[in-house]
Design a protein that fits this description.
Blueprint (H helix, E strand, L loop, with lengths): L14 H5 L15 E7 L5 E7 L1 H5 L3 E6 L24 E2 L5 E7 L2 H9 L2 E6 L6 H4 L15 E9 L2 H7 L2 E9 L11 E6 L5 E5 L4 H12 L6 E5 L14 H13 L3 E4 L2 H7 L2 E2 L2 E9 L5 E13 L7 H8 L9 E10 L5 E2 L6 H19 L3 H7 L19 H11 L2 H4 L7 E12 L9 E7 L5 E5 L8 H13 L6 E5 L16 H28 L6 E4 L2 E4 L2 E7 H10 L6 E7 L6 H4 L9 E13 L6 E11 L6 H20 L5 E2 L2 E2 L18 E6 L22 H13 L10 H17 L1
Parallel strand pairs: 1-12, 10-11, 13-17, 15-16, 20-21, 27-30
Antiparallel strand pairs: 1-5, 2-4, 2-6, 3-5, 7-16, 8-14, 9-10, 9-12, 14-15, 18-26, 19-20, 19-25, 22-23, 23-24, 26-27, 28-29
């Protein structure tokens, strides 16, 4: 279809203020009489708190308030699925290095920091658990005394007859893969300003991905009703899942404001971002897969063990997603899965781009290449052979409405010259492939949806109120494009109001690859409602029925006769002069017609309204003398449906490629007795421009989804999911060693090469 705005290279509406330094981030907000807050954190991974003496800190000039855990309402809270296991500040026990113990409000940051040094805490050290396998053993020391053991969450999912499937397989392979913790590493650290008003209302300014989730999360630890809480989102300087949920740094300033009568700001240091917010959860993935000799997948048994850290947070969803990320994009008739999250004395795990998908696909796509080698089948062919397709009767009841996965794999193979180059490159050079089937618009809980309200005033200005959060992915621009396309108005006449829980309608937040899908639908519905009212008002003036009218290029006109019409502005004038109430209002709401993921672990059903399928090829060069990996090329076939804005899709492909490279080869957070050893940008190995793939390129796949707004699906988060296995497979092609543990660092490669050499010598 020929669109006016959709599919065009429309620059992001937030680009000018950001490029000019005019965008307002949290630290730019200055309020009268504002105080500054700092938090004292535990220097031990596991210890009882015997005593806290805050008297010297309270007496320090410039200090306005000091609080400990016992000053807050005596409740446990958490975010999401059965997550109430945390207090705002530690009460009688700390459970990880960096656990909050006390907080100070002072007239400036320097005084607040100095006051922390005056607080004396007496600890009784306790044995600490850092290995989930040790923590889940019977009789292990309990990290939370009110639980039977250290199993935080457990999920089971199965269909078919797995054991019979293994008996009928010609080849069965079992492997274990592990992944490291990663930090979200946003350039902007987490921050908040809290203000407790005299009338009992609360305002929180914060950098976050889900203002309505944060609003709800403040209620229980502060003992207030949800209608008393007003959350205003500032610009977000990077989120990636790490700014999803309510955390102590948002609760503490509000409480300190109640005590002092002043607004209170808290900005975390870079170390605090590492030790006290969230991280990608390290995992152990055990995978057993049976195939026929021609490569047909028959049966699979998976066990996903996740290091939860000291508290649940929003992390339990990872073991639900882990199951569904194995169920696509391949046909597996017999499937059994167990997901386990285990408490340890480490910082808390949570969502980070993919939230379980990268771990699951690293295991599956790596093992698939290993199976292909075992049975003598080409890795591309085994993927194409087992691909799901539109209308496939999935045993887990997943419905496939659009799928060009075979074409995705084929396109990547052609771009990589796979047939001519696989296994034939010079020593140290290799190519590999990885793939993913990712959700779009997934629903984790009942009433998971998004809303949009459109108001058109007498001046023909179009105000769009929406609760969605733009964290750099460009959804604000997409919303305006959808409105302009449907109403036929100018893009620049659309004005967006978002990020304010008292101005914008409800939205669940930016995560789960579903924002464009969800908000695209609600915005399109609102625009259609407005358009219908407008055309009905204009129809008598043009002496036709409203069904005969359309709007396009800033005009309302008779279909097929654009000259027989009026301007959009004139149409609004006619609507208002006809005695219709102003502003002209349209409302839209969309909730995926699927089962909540938390329910689907107990039954079969549709997890997401649609799925995006992605194939990715990697080319690498490995220095066998140093183990250094240079990523030469990442080619991505991202089946994202109708492209709503090519600029955004290209940016997501490039950014996700670099993020995937970090997961594959660089990012890890080693610790010593629970204390992170690289909690700064000086030491944490983020890929730089020198480490980024030399070439990243996306291939446009023409798969229009019947369920998506204008036919769009997911674009962005899913692109980084196949990166790590594609690189791992390319490394094997280059040097003949298989690394099962992410990240694939030079020392791991050198050890594997040495082992291979010794084994070759022995044979």
């Amino acid at each position: 279809m020929d669109y006016e705005v959709i599919g065009k290279r429309v620059p992001n509406i937030d680009a000018p203020p950001k490029s000019r330094g005019q965008a307002q981030y949290l630290d730019d907000i200055k309020l009268p009489n504002m105080l500054h807050s700092k938090m004292l954190r535990s220097p031990l991974a596991h210890a009882r708190i015997l005593n806290i003496d805050v008297s010297r800190a309270k007496a320090m000039p410039g200090v306005k308030a000091v609080v400990t855990g016992h000053d807050f309402p005596p409740v446990k809270w958490g975010t999401g699925y059965q997550g109430a296991d945390q207090t705002t500040l530690a009460l009688d026990k700390v459970r990880h290095f960096g656990d909050g113990v006390a907080a100070v409000a002072a007239i400036d940051e320097e005084i607040a920091e100095e006051a922390l040094s005056l607080i004396r805490v007496d600890y009784e050290p306790l044995p600490a658990l850092f290995d989930p396998l040790e923590a889940m053993k019977p009789g292990a020391l309990k990290i939370h005394e009110d639980r039977e053991d250290n199993i935080a969450d457990r999920v089971n999912k199965a269909f078919g007859d797995v054991e019979r499937g293994f008996r009928e397989s010609d080849h069965v392979r079992e492997d274990t893969f592990t992944t490291a913790p990663n930090n979200h590493a946003p350039l902007e650290p987490h921050a908040a300003i809290g203000l407790w008003h005299d009338d009992g209302n609360i305002t929180l300014w914060t950098t976050c991905q889900a203002p309505f989730i944060v609003r709800r999360g403040l209620c229980k630890p502060l003992g207030v009703a949800e209608d008393k809480v007003h959350v205003i989102r500032s610009e977000v300087g990077g989120g990636f899942g790490g700014k999803m949920e309510t955390m102590s740094h948002q609760i503490v300033p509000v409480f300190l404001s109640k005590l002092t009568g002043s607004p209170v700001k808290m900005i975390l240091s870079r170390e605090e971002v590492f030790i006290s917010t969230r991280q990608r959860q390290p995992s152990i993935f055990k995978l057993r897969t049976g195939v026929k000799k021609d490569g047909t997948l028959v049966s699979q048994d998976a066990r996903f063990i996740v290091d939860c850290g000291a508290y649940k947070g929003l992390g339990p969803i990872i073991i639900i997603i882990g199951a569904y990320m194995l169920m696509l994009p391949y046909i597996i008739p017999n499937f059994r899965y167990e997901g386990i999250r285990v408490y340890t004395n480490k910082p808390v795990g949570g969502p980070l781009r993919g939230h379980g998908a990268p771990q699951a696909r690293f295991a599956m796509e790596s093992q698939l290449d290993m199976i292909a080698k075992d049975i003598g089948v080409d890795p591309v062919d085994i993927r194409v052979k087992n691909s799901v397709y539109v209308g496939y009767d999935h045993p887990g009841k997943q419905q496939i409405f659009s799928c060009g996965f075979k074409e995705d794999v084929g396109s990547v193979a052609r771009e990589m010259n796979w047939r001519e180059r696989k296994g034939k490159l010079p020593e140290g050079h290799g190519i590999g492939i990885g793939a993913s089937g990712l959700f779009s618009g997934v629903k984790y809980q009942p009433h998971y949806g998004g809303s949009t309200t459109i108001q058109i005033n007498m001046d023909a200005g179009i105000n769009v109120l929406c609760g969605a959060t733009d964290i750099g992915q460009g959804v604000n621009t997409i919303i305006c494009q959808i409105v302009a396309e449907e109403l036929g108005c100018r893009f620049e006449d659309v004005h967006l109001i978002t990020g304010d829980t008292r101005a914008a309608p409800y939205d669940y937040g930016t995560f789960g690859s579903g924002v464009t899908f969800r908000i695209g639908h609600s915005t399109l519905s609102a625009a259609k409602e407005v358009k219908k009212q407008l055309l009905q008002a204009v129809a008598p003036h043009l002496e036709v029925s409203y069904e005969e009218l359309d709007a396009r290029a800033g005009r309302v006109f008779v279909k097929g006769h654009m000259e027989k019409g009026i301007s959009f502005r004139e149409a609004i004038r006619i609507f208002s002069y006809a005695g219709n109430p102003m502003p002209l209002v349209g409302r839209g709401y969309y909730e995926p017609d699927t089962e909540p993921g938390t329910e689907l672990v107990k039954k079969e059903g549709q997890f997401s309204p649609t799925y995006a399928f992605i194939a990715q090829g990697a080319e690498v060069k490995v220095d066998k003398e140093t183990g250094e990996v240079k990523i030469l090329k990442l080619i991505t076939a991202d089946e994202c449906g109708q492209i709503l804005n090519p600029i955004n899709v290209e940016g997501q492909v490039d950014g996700s490629a670099v993020g995937g490279a970090g997961l594959a080869c660089f990012e890890d957070i080693p610790h010593s007795n629970g204390q992170y050893l690289n909690s700064s940008f000086l030491d944490y190995l983020l890929p730089t421009t020198l480490d980024a793939p030399v070439e990243t390129r996306g291939l446009e796949m023409k798969t229009i989804d019947p369920k998506g707004p204008f036919g769009a699906k997911e674009a962005g988060e899913g692109v980084m999911v196949p990166t790590a296995p594609a690189i791992a497979n390319a490394i094997f092609d280059a040097i003949g060693v298989r690394i099962h543990d992410l990240p694939i660092t030079p020392d791991k490669i050198m050890k594997a090469l040495e082992k291979k050499k010794l084994e070759g010598t022995r044979t």
